[in-house]
Design brief:
Chain lengths: ~400, ~170
């Protein structure tokens, strides 16, 4: 029991620290990658390659003046930044980030809380994040802030459904809602990574995850051209910074989720050395590196997409969510459930590489209409001339 | 469709989102590796593509003769022509009857850097300079007196292109 407590405290401290440092470096990465994509250099003055820039920003935010609008609801106004910051960090608690670490007191799972219902926990806390945004917008007593937070909640509701639907397919394959089991299920070979048997689910998930984290092309809650800065217009100094940290920790969590659900978690491809006992420290470190590499890739993807795409118009956003993503996700779950039932019960296959490849082939067939019919003017509403197909 | 939004209608074969997105991402990715055009200013003040023009009109410089005295003869033409009225000149005369400036001050804040003072100067004494780093900690440091003007070492403006003096 005391071993569990000590191990948990150590894990919490380490994970929290790593995420905070990661978020700080992520703000720098965002600015530098954005600059490179625009043929600029980006911040490179503070420290080598600008590495101390986040520290300088943090210091600046700490010493700046805190403003409190006279007509704001003071309690909620102060509560809102924490409300958006905490759920973003809490979600990370159930994500396994490495193979178990052997210690003299037994194997320690490399996950802060190995919940049997880890998956449901993620869905529950994932949608809590919007409360901070809504409270911020409402308590500011500012029209633009309120509009921004209204958009955030509408967007969250619309895309949460597609997000949930796309993950149902993952549960169908894993047959379990514990994230460690989801990873074990994927680690047989490269093709049993869920991204292959469930490519379209991954596609839906990634689009919905972009919307959930309010990142471009879905950053309507803070559309500066229309809403000044949206829900955090009235915030300054460290409270503003908290929203920033929340946004980036949401990104980290979403990337970790994509890795866990679709890219085999900490599994190293092409080998089963990493996911079979006996556990060693080397295995833990190697799988941790693998997990980090995957998460960093998705973080890069977030930044990459942000500096490529323009923002959606609001009606396009809603049309995409309800008219495209939701039917797509629903239809996909139906098809994939039928296929799994057929392969598993009809043909009596167990889940292995062959099973995964069969589903992958099905996904490729399904991707053809997505890319060649749906893509022609049906994804972004109203851009095609009437009567054309 | 929101009310009153004008949408450009395109033929179906030209509309795309997914494929267009992938194309765009390929483009932005290729830009990651392209050479950057930013000049790293304090370390790098000119590059192959960009140098300060010899016709640049910056803060002034007073040229001096062999004895180190200002070439100015206090004729009064530069305060006369100055459109911003930023030159203060009090003339003096020595025993030999040579005129020289007792006070010669230029308020660089009022100056519009037209370069007329240099054009009008019969002695080629006052010049505008090819220089732009003028930061100071206080406002009064921007009134340059004669001593300071003589102490400047930066190159002076040619005002016109030597290879094309008539501006053709």
């Amino acid at each position: 029991m005391s071993v569990f407590l000590v191990a948990s405290v150590i894990k919490i401290v380490v994970v929290f620290t790593v995420i905070m440092v990661g978020v700080a470096l992520l703000t720098l990465a965002e600015r530098r990658i954005c600059a490179w994509m625009q043929d600029r250099v980006g911040p490179n003055r503070v420290g080598p390659q600008g590495l101390l820039q986040p520290a300088a920003d943090g210091l600046k935010n700490l010493v700046k003046e805190e403003t409190l609008p006279a007509q704001a609801d003071k309690v909620l106004f102060l509560l809102a930044p924490t409300m958006s910051f905490i759920p973003a960090l809490l979600t990370f608690a159930v994500i396994p980030f490495a193979a178990p670490l052997p210690t003299p007191w037994g194997d320690v799972d490399m996950v802060v809380a190995n919940l049997p219902v880890g998956f449901l926990y993620i869905l529950a806390f994932g949608s809590l994040g919007v409360y901070g945004i809504v409270l911020a917008g409402w308590s500011s007593n500012n029209k633009y802030s309120l509009l921004g937070s209204m958009r955030a909640s509408a967007q969250m509701i619309s895309y949460e459904i597609a997000l949930g639907m796309s993950t149902v397919a993952v549960l169908l394959i894993a047959g379990n809602v514990t994230l460690t089991d989801v990873i074990v299920r994927q680690s047989q070979s490269l093709f049993t990574w869920n991204v292959f048997p469930l490519s379209l689910a991954f596609f839906i998930f990634i689009v919905a995850a972009f919307a959930e984290t309010n990142r471009l092309p879905f950053d309507l809650p803070e559309a500066e051209g229309e809403l000044i800065a949206g829900y955090h217009t009235e915030y300054s100094a460290m409270k503003f910074s908290m929203f920033y940290i929340a946004e980036y920790s949401n990104m980290v969590t979403a990337s970790a989720l994509m890795t866990t659900l679709f890219f085999g978690g900490w599994d190293i491809p092409f080998t089963t050395w990493d996911n079979t006992p006996p556990w060693t420290t080397l295995k833990t470190l190697a799988t941790l590196a693998m997990f980090s590499a995957k998460v960093i890739f998705f973080l890069f993807l977030y930044i990459w997409v942000r500096w490529t795409l323009p923002r959606f118009r609001y009606d396009q956003l809603m049309a995409l969510g309800w008219k495209v993503m939701l039917p797509l996700a629903l239809g996909y779950v139906t098809v994939i459930a039928t296929a799994i039932w057929f392969l598993h019960d009809g043909l009596g296959w167990t889940y292995d590489t062959r099973f995964a490849l069969a589903l992958f082939a099905l996904n490729l067939v399904l991707a053809v209409p997505l890319f060649f019919v749906l893509d022609r003017g049906r994804i972004v509403a109203g851009s095609m001339a009437e009567g054309e197909a | 469709m929101a009310i009153g939004v004008k949408v450009m209608k395109r033929p179906g074969s030209q509309t795309s989102y997914l494929r267009a997105t992938l194309k765009g991402m390929a483009l932005t990715f290729s830009h990651l590796w392209r050479p950057k055009v930013t000049m790293q200013y304090p370390e790098e003040k000119s590059s192959q593509d960009w140098t300060l023009s010899p016709r640049w009109r910056g803060t002034h410089r007073m040229l001096t003769d062999e004895q180190g005295r200002a070439k100015c003869v206090a004729c009064g033409l530069c305060p006369q022509i100055c459109p911003a009225n930023c030159i203060k000149l009090v003339p003096g005369e020595d025993e030999a009857g040579n005129r020289y400036p007792l006070i010669y001050e230029i308020d660089e804040f009022r100056c519009v850097f037209c370069g007329y003072c240099q054009e009008v100067c019969p002695e080629e004494a006052i010049h505008v300079g090819v220089h732009y780093e003028n930061s100071e900690y206080s406002r009064d440091r921007f009134v340059y007196d004669l001593e300071r003007l003589c102490a400047q070492t930066h190159p002076v403006s040619t005002l016109w292109d030597p290879s094309d003096p008539k501006g053709e």
